[in-house]
Design goal:
By secondary structure, this protein is α/β, with parallel strands linked by helices. The chain contains 9 helices and 6 strands.
Length: about 250
């Protein structure tokens, strides 16, 4: 399977555990089963800083009680290159997205934008797939890495893509400038404000994922889709109809 194996999942040298909540979503909703998070990165370099950022994020998410999967895009075909998208990597990506409750996307900034590798993965995620929706209603955290000074071009584009994919993109985000200086020789992120921001973003992703968990079906319920599917409203079970009825308003 095209998944990355996460080394040292319990080793968090840059995290000051005195200030870290191991269950940041406590009290917001059911934490069991563990929130399921899919992580995507946008570079195939051997020392890929977007991948290293995603790995740090995955370790933090596991520390916060989540189950994570990191997709390896190295064997992904181009869109429309394979008839019917019938390719093992495409099938795996779509299955992982169906499995997930939330995503983390991290892209390098290249020529002021996200990379083709990042867009390639999003392009292989359809809005609808046999009546199922691989991205709709899922939470999303966006991050980027830059070779130079800090910018927000990639995260802004990832937000646009997340909105287009009908995902709930959380308010916080991470942008790591001069990423080559932020990791040691072992590929681990050094303590810094950039690392602290990734901790913030992952905490927030866990909170939003758990908070929205019981409401996802209702949040993505649409008039146009009910109409297209020919599913009329049952007034006996429609709570909004009950709440606006004259009898309900009079308190009878």
């Amino acid at each position: 399977m095209p998944l990355r194996t996460l080394s040292g999942p319990d080793h968090l040298p840059a995290l000051d555990r005195r200030y870290a909540l191991d269950r940041p979503a406590l009290g917001l909703g059911a934490g069991d089963p563990p929130p399921r998070i899919l992580l995507l990165y946008g570079s195939l370099r051997e020392r890929s800083f977007s991948r290293l950022c995603v790995e740090e994020a995955a370790r933090l998410l596991q520390f916060f009680g989540c189950e994570t999967r990191i997709f390896d895009p190295s064997i992904m075909p181009l869109p429309d290159q394979v008839t019917g998208d019938d390719h093992p990597a495409v099938h795996e990506l779509r299955e992982l997205s169906m499995w997930s409750e939330g995503h983390v996307w991290c892209s390098p900034e290249r020529h002021g934008q996200i990379t083709g590798i990042m867009k390639l993965q999003v392009d292989h995620l359809p809005l609808s797939m046999g009546g199922m929706r691989p991205t709709q209603g899922r939470t999303l955290a966006v991050m980027q890495v830059s070779a130079g000074s800090q910018s927000f071009n990639s995260v802004n584009t990832l937000r646009v893509l997340g909105r287009w994919m009908r995902m709930v993109t959380i308010p916080n985000q991470s942008s790591v400038a001069k990423a080559f200086a932020e990791f040691d020789d072992a590929g681990r992120m050094k303590p810094s404000s950039y690392y602290d921001r990734i901790v913030d973003v992952m905490e927030e992703l866990v909170r939003f994922t758990v908070l929205l968990r019981p409401h996802t079906t209702q949040l993505v319920d649409r008039y146009s889709e009910r109409k297209e599917a020919g599913v009329p409203i049952d007034s006996a079970t429609d709570l909004s109809s009950i709440a606006t009825s004259p009898t309900y308003r009079k308190g009878e």
